[in-house]
Amino acid sequence: MxxxxxxxxxxxxxxxxxxxxxxxxLVGSAADGREALDLVTALGPDxxxxxxxxxxxxxxxxxxxxxxxxxRTIFVIVSAELSPDLExxxxxxxAIVVDKVRGVxxxxxxxxxxLAVDVDDExxxx
Length: 126
Prior knowledge:
The protein has about 130 residues and is an alpha/beta fold.
């Protein structure tokens, strides 16, 4: 998984939380949207946690571009400012939106839930 947030403090909190979660492996982190898109393209992580309000590209824009280019990465978009537009755009690419106010544990729960659904889908297809 990769994590992306322009706040060094929140990025540090995310990194520590992922490191503590034994079922998740952090393979990269980014401080802006362009860097996040580059990491998703280069590493193809199972999950990308992206803050929606980052310089260069919003988290939802990172997700839309990556999915448009064929990425199978699951995107968890974290935002302190939820909106119908964000929810609609996320629904269009099967991204998950999490309210930043709910905390890092809510973000990790969304990741675990997405991975469980993805594994279930693969098992049913096989």
